Amino acid sequence: MKKLYLYFFGIILIVAACDKSSTLGSDLISDEWIHAKGVDTFKFDISYYELDSLLLAYAGLPNTYFVGKMDDPVFGKTEAALYTQIRFVNTKEFEFLRIPIDSVVLALRYDQLGSYGDSLLPHTVEVYPLMDTLGINVRYYEGFSAVYGNTLLGKLENFTPNYRDSVKVKFNAVTNVYAPQLRIPLDTAVFMNIMRNLPDTPFSNVDTFVRLFPGIALIAKQNASMLSLIPASEQSRITIYYHKDTVQSEFIFNMGGNAAKAPYIKLDHSNTPVQAFINGQQNGDSVFYIQGLLGPDARLKMPYSPDWEAKFLNYAVLEFDVVIQDPRDSTTFRPIDLLFVQDLSSGKPTDIRDFEIARSFSGQISNLSDFSSLFGGIPRKMTVDGQTIIRYSFNITAHFQNLRREKKDLDLLISPIFKTEIAQRVSLYGNKHSTRPAKLKLIYSE
Hints:
2 domains, mainly beta, 11-stranded antiparallel sheet, 7 helices
């Protein structure tokens, strides 16, 4: 049976919590291990690793979805679409089915921090009716693709996403202010024709409505970047605007927690260095690649060595420097915000003790500063030999001490911590690179 891996922020596996007051002292909430000097001459191998059966959506999670097409010079092509139901609060106010309509607008709140790529490139997004019915309790895995109709409900052409400015909408002399959002005008005649040709019954029963109108598909039509959207936000909706006598009125379809949603994600690494890494034509000894969504992860393997048995071990630290071949590697294609390592010795990824401790101390990573001080995993800018570099460090001391005691090999997965919810990617130097080799640093007592 295939293994299932959940990367949703709200449902990461919760292990038995550590007691902050008794398990570790507060003096350990520091970055002392990051700067410690030690032995770093150990050699290890890095290769491509593919997680099996990635779960992309289930039971209302994740909160964010991508829509976009992106052509990355190193990682190749990424394409993402969003499928979502639209629902409504039961009401008896159905005048919009009979009277003239002013406009119909689809709004989707941006996840500003999640969007990825060159946001200055023009986008075109189109909206179509779904033909497949989605289910809130259905698990949607990699490779899922829904059927949608060819009736164009609306589109927004050649727009540049604005992630900074709020949106102001005036309604009956009151100005409402919303977070930055994507707003797509729908074709009033087309959309209302569909709504008015449904039987009257669906508008008194939401479940009947979504069976007759399964939802909408948002499709990106040109290469640009990845728009990260929050359809479950109360500000994400389809609004029908109309006048009831002289009063402006509205009917709202929402995409909240009860609305089933699913993503379409496709990656194409053809004719890229990443493809060579995936195929094993290029090992990760010099450079290796990690990517969110359905992209590659890396496996680090190092056999047990008697050299580990030297003096009392204070720290064991892994270090990887980011490959910056183009200025865009640290700006447009910024490195992954948070990487972590898991143990693979059992044949499936398992959290290591260092990660469990840091996660518990940080309130399940709600305090990123505490988490990174204990475990690492975030990209840090620093100056080495007069050169500015970006480096990831991982504190694996507790895990390594256990391996040393049991004389076991080091076998780790390196992956984004919320893999299916991010579009970021990073290239890293391997252990055998000539100038910036990855390191395992062992820091012993004097």
